[in-house]
Task: inverse folding
């Protein structure tokens, strides 16, 4: 219960019903399938899960639905990103009340000119506001999407200030030098990578594993990356999505594979992808030799 996120965790997309609400039944089925395919845990409402498009009540109701289905709280992480510190505090407290420990924390993501000191202040305000030693926070570095990153010096200082409560960091920059910088200044943090092709060498250099989106559709390949490395196959899979907005394309593949339209739907400002069948055909042609 006190361990940071390690191993193979999947950043899940969020299936939607026809009225735009979260399809809890479809998501629960998907999570159970991922666990059957060797995933260690799931993170809800991160970037892949369109997290910033969902309010606190929706996120918590989704967690409750998974818990009621028998999914263990220690295998669930929750994206807590909000522009307002007070909203992040409230959601994190509520998540802890449900038994969760793992929360994925974005830095403040509206003021692009925030200083390192200001970013640290924002994280500290959340952690001080929650004030609960049960929390195992994973800082979330994805500056190409959020517009604001987590400076390595800030990650290091927060670990010193809060100890095990600041348990890890997810580096989704897709810049391996950034991963190395985090490892250099904060070796106590469990650092996971979001860029699937970097998994093997990150683990070889002390990384904790991965929280990634492609785990939704190629879990066997993610496990291979952790165990033996499969960089060439992973690069080929990534190439299928290289020219597509990732979350709509991923959901289109899940819709094409499952026949469930709920996977195709996204919330504004994203637009649903219409080429799921073609993407799936390309993906399947690449995976045949791997699965054989």
Result:
């Amino acid at each position: 219960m006190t361990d940071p996120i390690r191993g193979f965790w999947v950043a899940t997309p969020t299936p939607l019903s026809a009225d735009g609400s979260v399809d809890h039944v479809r998501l629960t089925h998907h999570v159970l399938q991922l666990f059957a395919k060797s995933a260690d845990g799931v993170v809800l409402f991160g970037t892949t899960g369109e997290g910033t498009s969902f309010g606190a009540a929706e996120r918590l109701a989704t967690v409750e639905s998974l818990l009621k289905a028998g999914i263990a709280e220690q295998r669930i992480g929750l994206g807590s990103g909000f522009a307002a510190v007070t909203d992040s505090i409230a959601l994190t407290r509520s998540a802890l009340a449900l038994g969760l420990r793992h929360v994925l924390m974005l830095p403040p993501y509206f003021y692009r000119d925030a200083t390192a000191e200001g970013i640290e202040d924002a994280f500290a305000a959340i952690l001080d506001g929650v004030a609960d030693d049960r929390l195992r926070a994973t800082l979330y570095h994805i500056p190409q999407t959020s517009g604001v990153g987590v400076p390595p010096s800030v990650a290091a200082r927060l670990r010193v200030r809060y100890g095990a409560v600041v348990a890890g960091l997810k580096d989704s920059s897709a810049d391996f030098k950034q991963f190395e910088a985090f490892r250099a200044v904060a070796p106590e943090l469990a650092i996971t990578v979001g860029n699937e092709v970097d998994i093997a060498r990150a683990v070889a250099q002390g990384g904790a594993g991965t929280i990634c989106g492609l785990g939704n559709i190629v879990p066997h390949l993610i496990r291979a990356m952790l165990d033996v490395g499969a960089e060439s196959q992973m690069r080929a899979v990534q190439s299928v999505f290289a020219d597509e907005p990732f979350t709509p394309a991923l959901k289109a593949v899940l819709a094409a594979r499952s026949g469930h339209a709920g996977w195709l739907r996204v919330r504004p400002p994203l637009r649903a992808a219409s080429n799921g069948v073609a993407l799936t055909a390309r993906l399947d042609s690449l995976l045949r030799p791997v699965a054989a």
The chain has twelve helices and eight strands. The chain has a mean pLDDT of 95. The radius of gyration is 18 Å. The first strand starts at residue 7 and ends at 11.
